[in-house]
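1st attempt posting a full record on here, be nice pls
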Amino acid sequence: MKKKNQDIRTGLFALIIVIVIIFIIGLIINKPEPVIIQGEADASEIRISGKVPGRIKQFHTEEGAQVHAGDTLVFIDSPELTAKLEQASAAEDAAQAQNRKAIKGARVEQIQGAYDMYQKALAGVEIAKKSYDRVQHLFDKGVMPAQKRDEAEAQYKAAVATANAAKSQYDMAKNGAEREDKEAALALVDRAKGAVNEVKSYMSDIALTSPINGEVTEIYPKRGELVGTGAPIMSIVDLNDIWFSFNVREDLLGNLKMDKTLNVKIPALNNQIFEVKVTYIKALASYATWKATKTSGQFDVKTFEVRARPTKKIAGLRPGMTAIFEETLN
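the predicted structure (as tokens):
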């Protein structure tokens, strides 16, 4: 009996060991499989282009060079714009001269001439008045016919009208241009100045400067080549604004939330591990959707772009470097 009880205990112990082993194997088999997700570093990049068409006259930088905000990068030669500036400046000079003339009024000679014509008309009025008075006196005595009296009266009235017209011409010359004429001349000056300022604003785009601190990654045209309005001339990348971009299937997004921190490995930096924070999650276009291969039991899986920024500046990190992290498939 003693031996039999010992055999039973030994069997139970062996059975427990087998059950434990089976349980461990089951855990290993059913353990969620880690998925390696690969992405790359990316950075803000701007393209330098101008509003002025012309030929590349001179570059003041080269690919790979570090530039600072305000540095001159390239000069564009535009003879057409220079000609337009000369035309606009000439039109402004003409408008200024017209405005000065309107403010100054008539010339001294013109005023004197108008005054002399007015005096001449007054002398004519005086003579016509005396002739009319004499004819009227003779008409009253009955020695002058009514027709002669009417003719003398008409000549007198015509002389008075001529004198009034001469006085108006004299007053106009003395007073200068009307208020409306002066305002119109001033408006022409403002219009000409606006045209000059417009051309000058384009002239400022002959010398293109860098809006940021960064590195010149690519220069597109060669010196002497013709570039059009808005055509890209070079690209500058901001190495201080860098992040990692990963394309992740939606069934792996369970643990990837906004502001979550991840540990990524960068092979180009001796496989060092760096901490990053998720700052952007967005679904990609339909062409990035994983299509189901079976009509039942599977479904289409969208792909999301996940961006993560380093929590601290990473020395030596450059756009295009690979970054890797692991995510568990639920």
